[in-house]
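ok here's Aspartate aminotransferase family protein, seq below lol
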Amino acid sequence: MVVRSTIMDTNSFRAEHAQALDSHTRSLTDKRAKLLGESYRLFYRRPVHLVKGQGQYLWDANGDKYLDVYNNVASIGHCHPAVIEAVNHQMHQLNTHTRYLHERILDYSEEILRTMPSAVNKAMYMCTGSEANDLAIRIAQAYSGGTGIIVTQEAYHGTSQLTSGASPALGSGQPLAPTTRLVAPPDHYRLAGQDVGLWFAQQIQAQIDDMKANGIQFAGFLADSIFSSDGVLPGEAGFLRAAIDVVHKNGGIFIADEVQPGFARTGEAFWGFARHGIVPDVVTTGKPMGNGIPISGLFAQDHVLAAFSDQIPYFNTFGGNPVAMAAAQAVLNVIREEDLQRHSLDIGLQLKKELQTLQEKYECVGDVRGAGLFIGFELVTDKESKNPNKALALDLIERLRDKKVLTSVAGPHGNVLKLRPPLAFQAQDIDWLVGALDESLHELTL
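and the structure came out like this:
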């Protein structure tokens, strides 16, 4: 039996929902089913037909306004004028690949590398996070001489052959690579009272030992530092250090997947990994760096990258093209000029405080956790057992959609609301979100 994908299927439209749709929406879903590959998924039992976005808001075809509390790809806000202007200006000049000289890729690389630890001093560019993580795995294998990759149990790192083989969140229909090993995520909520850093380091060592016992040489540990697909598990700042020490002691590298926690989102640091005071060997990024324009990056310590790049030429045709680099530069400028790291920290703290009032009010709200504007809101059957309440979470998502608030779920049980708005999210939006949650929980738990 194929297990549904936790990130693709948990909150998705399915054929049995079609009868409840209005005629226009039904015609679009029918046309989509006819023309597009069956692997695609739509959010919600009643899919939303969006036609416009601005900042943290979206509008549907009927003109109804929604609050976006999920989309980190438009990281600084939908249709940000700085990105539009930068892309439009560069499109009028030139767009070509990296085998010609151009200043944009060099200027951006100098600036983005200044945000990294000094040891991370080389840059490469692609179009998607999947491609960045694919290359990172190849680098790990070249550097270590091994093939074994460790990820967490519900990790998602991409859709290429290599990355899907290290993305258990895609479900059992997508087999993992035989050299992939899984560790339980650092769930501080359920591991309360334990030294989670030590516990997690021991989990990684156990999987490295299992690899050795099966003739597999360890290559690296690949993780996003907020463990978003595992249910948004930021933990205490610094707890990851022991695990990364184990990785290095065993000859592997740490790949920090910053597609979701990077670019000021956690507030506490520009990069998610930086919350922990660790220095990755490789850092990967994705489309949020260009506010949705197809660009991704890989940043590495030169001696680690050299094991791959001194032997194998790499060329991603339009990775790092001038238009994409213009978008990335505009995003970086906006993050600085609008002080979005500080904004994420301050607004995130305000939001978390308000969400915690719902935790106190409702027995079904087990935990509220997060860093900056990346918050997990966990639904349980009761606070004592901490048993996941997937049914309630999915009904809650649908009620929020009806109240014009868009978000989704995460975690192995699909019971954690993943609250991850564009960084344009403001203090006045907190009332809309928390009010909609309060009303919906009241309606669903009467």
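fwiw The chain has twelve helices and 15 strands. kinda neat tbh
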